[in-house]
UniProtKB/TrEMBL annotation, chain A:
The lineage of its organism: Bacteria, Pseudomonadati, Bacteroidota, Sphingobacteriia, Sphingobacteriales. It comes from Mucilaginibacter mali. Its cofactor is FAD. This is succinate dehydrogenase. One of its GO terms (cellular component) is plasma membrane. The active site is at residue 337. Belongs to the FAD-dependent oxidoreductase 2 family. FRD/SDH subfamily.
From TrEMBL, chain B:
This is Succinate dehydrogenase/fumarate reductase iron-sulfur subunit. InterPro entries: 2Fe-2S_ferredoxin-like_sf (IPR036010), 2Fe2S_fd_BS (IPR006058), 4Fe4S_Fe-S-bd (IPR017896), Beta-grasp_dom_sf (IPR012675), Helical_ferredxn (IPR009051), SDH/FRD_Iron-Sulfur (IPR050573), Succ_DH/fum_Rdtase_N (IPR025192). It comes from Mucilaginibacter mali. Coiled coil: none annotated. Its cofactor is [3Fe-4S] cluster; [2Fe-2S] cluster.
């Protein structure tokens, strides 16, 4: 089946403004007759909930954390892009659009990306008006810096804590509406299902994580703003609580899941030290502006380094391989994330990795310290160095940092049309939860942009159109679909609670992570993926026989929460493998070994794979059905990415 | 692995808000110095689950020192013995083999225990909801560069804005005062030009809510600043007192919840 993304006709630059005019409006007096459910209150969710409440809708917002301020958006470090051209360096909406399409390796939807670039300008204005303390120059104007994948300075930032400041801005807008009585906030609530009535999303089922109470909530529309699913890999840079449950349950009710195998692997993370490790920590990409990446030239030297028989400083200059500078002289250490990650993994695979595990390469600041002085390096990167020292007990001023790629962001997600509506009418997906704007690879400083764009400036328009069409007639929780869905959720919870096996859910999760990283990570093969599929199916069967879930539902029960999430991750893992198997091309961070150029670079196959893969759930243990949305490129020419 | 440690944990266990709690002793064996404190608890919990015992409940999420969710009062200090870090950034190499570690929840009447080491910090949200914002709707705002903000002011506002709302300041204070937390937001918004129209009203509203939540008053002991993982300065409290006093003396407004319509 061919899917319609509903991108409006007409010239690219006019699509959104014309479309906005054509959308139906809900008059102000009628808005209070509509109830909207928002699940997740990070950048996308908090900004959407606040903006919709400002318009006059009644909003119920849900998050699993103890406060909306904890959403994982808070951890983003680098910055947010906007085509303001404050630097007079030739930036424009079209250039931001172009960079994003190219950076995404031509697997994003043109119409959405152009809208994102247009709206980026408003986001900065909005955040400044809310009191977000962006970096300023001495004259009082906003400061900018440049970020991976672009040749202009368009990134706005608040030290290394941009995500935190943007989220606190959206949180404050949300708080204002909670105080005004227009948003009712439910914290420590986990969404466990979507209620579909006559084919439309009309509510959700939640579990109160303090009391275990399973409850239903009705609304005219449901917005999922629940983030990404990188934790399917067990170790990732995501917060521990980040999970796929809300999106996955929606998928099982009929929302298509698009491009699930698109995972961004970030090159500059602190390497894994042991099996006890619960998560990975990202070091900002900005470090690669001054740090030089290298690995020893021979396996022998690498082994000596791994066993700590020699130090990095004792490796002579001619025995060092600055592999990024060698292979990509034009971009050097600043090649995009997917290229840098893949090359680091190759070093480790060849036995030239460093550190006790051999799963790391060096990011060396010795030259920078010689050139700039330690004080300058400290001023630029001091907080990052401190963080590194804290975690590793090694001093990067004296010896090179060890870095290794880690799972960071997922570009796949629920399929949405131009309105951000999923394949279930009335169910929307915003931010990282949807698939639409980043293609096969996300450029730096564009995740924050998409979350806020969707929440502040897209959904307030497109949702109104749907609401005006369905009218304000209420559906309430007395409809039988609510009782039925609630019962399904209770059955699932009871099934989990009855598991009294011998293996913890954490052990299953770690095992799943190993399979995903090994076979569906940075480099994939047909053979490996087929093997992974069998392993995941076996893991799933074993989970439902041998997992341990302690306690009961009617209490605070972390083991139950985790059990439900791990079960969903296992199912998603299988779909990711199916998606990766189907996509016999390399694109972005997704590298199929069978599809590479003679130089070993990722080779796309535009002839056969310039489409969005939207998977449709066909029933438990049934193969999912593939629906395709052909990607049409009107404004940019598809070309091979080349950084050499 | 060599160099691993064996420790004894004394942990506050409390079934729920209405139950009586008590300290329970657990061994923590073969702990790597590279583990974070929370990872050490994960390992202990895996052991408990295998034995069919209820794992120790604690709040945590990002494990990167920024979400503010992790808490834990460790050996008498919020977030443990080291300065300027959260519990998730505390590593076991800060402890010695054979050591006994005492772990308790935040202790404050305004932060009731939910279970074991997790407390309810929603009072902090309600204080922010009472006025910790600039009233601006989405859209229709001026260009971001139309408002000039001197770099020093933006930097100072940023310093206050880095508060992660973890509650260590309350836990550290003998009076369980929330003034460092509240003053950080009042200072951030009070320094910026965008925050001026509501500056005094905001100070009144937030202080009123803080009092209503049952937090104690400040006696300038400075424990909050000393234990704050983000090194929020006591200067914020002076600024807040200044704005609050100005509001009371010269600009007092009748506070009421806006209707939103």
């Amino acid at each position: 089946m061919s899917l319609d993304g509903k991108v409006p006709q007409g010239p690219l630059a006019d699509k959104w403004s014309k479309y906005k005019f054509d959308l139906k409006l809900v008059n102000p007096a009628n808005k209070r007759k509509y109830d909207i459910i928002v699940v997740g209150t990070g950048l996308a969710g908090a900004s959407a909930a606040a903006s919709l409440a400002e318009l006059g809708y009644n909003v119920k917002a849900f998050c699993f954390q103890d406060s909306p301020r904890r959403a994982h958006s808070i951890a983003a470090q680098g910055g947010i892009n906007a085509a303001k051209n404050y630097q007079n360096d030739g930036d424009s909406v079209f250039r931001l659009f172009y960079d994003t399409i190219k950076g995404g390796d031509y697997r994003a939807r043109e119409g959405n990306v152009h809208r994102l670039a247009e709206v980026s300008v408003n986001i900065i204005d909005q955040c400044v008006a809310q009191g977000v303390p962006f970096a300023r120059e001495y004259g009082g104007l906003l400061d900018n810096r440049s970020f991976g994948g672009s040749q202009v300075s368009r990134t706005f930032y608040a030290r290394g804590q941009t995500g935190q400041q943007l989220l606190l801005g959206a949180y404050s807008a949300l708080n204002r509406q909670i105080n005004a009585g227009k948003v009712k906030m439910y914290t420590r609530h986990e969404m466990l299902d979507v209620v579909v009535v006559d084919g439309h999303a009309k509510g959700i089922v939640t579990r109160n994580m303090i009391t275990g109470e399973i409850d239903t909530h009705a609304g005219h529309a449901v917005l999922l703003c629940t983030g990404g699913y990188g934790n399917v890999f067990y170790l990732s840079t995501n917060a521990i609580g980040s999970n796929v449950t809300a999106a996955w349950r929606a998928h099982k009710r009929g929302a298509y899941f698009a491009n699930p195998c698109y995972t961004q692997i970030h090159p500059t993370c602190i390497p894994v030290t042991g099996d006890h490790q619960s998560k990975l920590t990202l070091m900002s990409e900005s470090l690669r502006n001054d740090g030089r990446v290298w690995a020893p030239k021979t396996v022998e030297i690498a082994e000596k380094l791994q066993k700590k028989q020699i130090t990095a400083a004792q490796v002579a200059e001619e025995d060092r391989d600055y592999f990024l500078e060698r292979k990509y002289p034009a971009f050097g250490n600043l090649v995009p994330r997917d290229v840098a990650s893949r090359n680091a993994k190759e070093m480790a695979d060849e036995g030239r990795g460093v550190g006790a595990s051999g799963l790391a390469v060096y990011l060396d600041f010795a030259d920078a310290i010689k050139r700039l002085g330690e004080d300058t390096v400290r001023a630029k990167y001091g907080n990052l160095f401190d963080m590194y020292i804290q975690i590793t007990d090694e001093n990067p001023y004296k010896e090179p940092m060890r870095i290794y790629p880690a799972v960071h962001y997922t570009m796949g997600g629920l399929w949405v049309d131009y309105n951000l509506m999923t394949s279930i009418p009335g169910l929307y997906a915003l931010g990282e939860c949807n698939f639409s704007d980043h293609g096969a690879n996300r450029l730096g400083a564009s995740a924050l942009m998409q979350g806020l764009s969707d929440g502040y400036f897209v959904i307030p328009y497109t949702l109104g159109d749907y609401l005006a069409k369905i009218g304000p007639k209420k559906v309430d929780t007395s409809h039988p679909a609510f009782a039925k869905t609630k019962q399904d959720v209770l059955d699932h919870v009871n099934k989990l609670i009855s598991l009294k096996g011998t293996k913890t859910t954490n052990e299953y999760h770690r095992e799943l992570g190993h399979i995903m990283w090994e076979y569906c990570g940075m480099a994939r093969t047909e053979e490996g993926l087929k093997k992974a599929k069998g392993m995941i199916q076996a893991l799933k069967a074993d989970f439902w026989k041998n997992a341990i879930i302690l306690g009961k539902n009617e209490e605070v029960n972390a083991s139950l929460e985790r059990g439900g999430r791990v079960a969903d991750f296992i199912e998603l893992g299988e779909l990711m493998v199916d998606d990766a198997l189907m996509r016999r091309e390399s694109c972005g961070g997704h590298f199929r070994l069978e599809s590479q150029t003679p130089d070993g670079e990722a080779l796309r196959d535009d002839e056969n794979f310039a489409f969005v893969a939207a998977w449709e759930f066909m029933g438990e243990n049934q193969p999912e059905k593939l629906n395709k949305e052909e990607l049409v490129f009107e404004a940019v020419h598809l070309s091979q990415r080349n950084y050499a | 692995m060599s160099g691993n440690m064996n420790l004894t944990l004394k942990v506050w266990r409390q079934k729920d808000a209405n139950s009586q709690g008590k300290m329970v002793t657990y061994p923590a064996k073969d702990i790597s110095p590279d583990m974070s404190f929370l990872e050490m608890l994960d390992v202990v919990n895996e052991g408990l689950i295998h034995k069919g015992e209820d794992p120790i409940h604690f709040d945590h999420d990002c494990r990167e020192g920024i979400c503010g969710m992790c808490s834990l009062y460790i050996n008498g200090h919020p977030h443990g013995p080291k300065r300027a870090i959260t519990t998730c950034q505390l590593h076991m190499r800060s402890f010695k083999d054979g050591e006994t570690i005492t772990i308790e929840p935040w202790r404050a009447a305004a932060f009731p225990v939910i279970k074991d080491l997790a407390v309810d910090r929603s009072a902090f949200d309600r204080i922010q909801q009472a006025g910790g914002y600039i009233s601006v709707n989405t859209g229709g705002v001026p260009d971001a560069n139309a408002t000039l903000i001197p770099k020093v002011v933006a930097d100072e506002a940023f310093n206050s804005a880095t508060c992660i709302g973890c509650g260590a300041c309350v836990a550290a204070c003998k009076n369980a005062s929330a003034m460092l937390f509240v003053s950080a937001k009042i200072t951030q918004l009070g320094l910026l030009p965008q925050g001026q129209p509501e500056r005094y009203r905001r100070a009144q509203s937030m202080v009123a809510q803080m009092d209503a939540e049952g937090f104690g008053s400040c006696t300038n002991t400075g424990a909050c600043e000393a234990e704050c993982p983000k090194e929020i300065s006591l200067t914020n409290i002076s600024r807040m007192n200044n704005d609050y006093l100005s509001a009371k003396l010269f600009r007092e407004e009748e506070l009421h919840h806006s209707s939103g319509e």
